[in-house]
TrEMBL record:
Coiled coil: none annotated. This is Alginate lyase domain-containing protein. GO terms for molecular function: structural constituent of ribosome. It comes from Pristionchus entomophagus. One of its GO terms (cellular component) is mitochondrial small ribosomal subunit. It holds the Pfam family MRP-S22.
Length: 103
């Protein structure tokens, strides 16, 4: 908990990968907690350019919650990454639609 409170999400994921197999319920719980907290906070910088960014994107798309990551990509000018995230979302949820608003 201390590590998560100090934005050490990547390090916690590294430790979880070291200690647990990917199908272990504890690994799944740790991953969910980290991915949910990352999405809620909108702090994707710690995962970008790591081996976990794909897992995080898939988790968010699978659960229909790509908006925070999509906004982060848009804010960073990463249009190609945003497009790939939308493609993933549409692949998993073919009837998904997103209304774009100007703010």
């Amino acid at each position: 908990q201390y590590a998560l409170d100090h934005d050490e999400h990547k390090n916690v994921m590294d430790m979880a990968c070291w200690y647990y197999k990917s199908d272990d319920i504890r690994f799944i719980e740790v991953s969910r907690t980290i991915f949910d907290r990352t999405s809620d906070s909108g702090r994707f910088d710690g995962f970008h350019s790591t081996r976990y960014i794909g897992n995080l994107a898939f988790y968010l798309a699978l659960n229909g919650n790509i908006t925070p990551m999509l906004n982060w990509f848009g804010g960073k000018g990463k249009i190609a990454e945003a497009a790939r995230l939308i493609l993933l979302q549409k692949t998993l949820h073919p009837t998904w639609r997103y209304d774009v608003s100007e703010e």
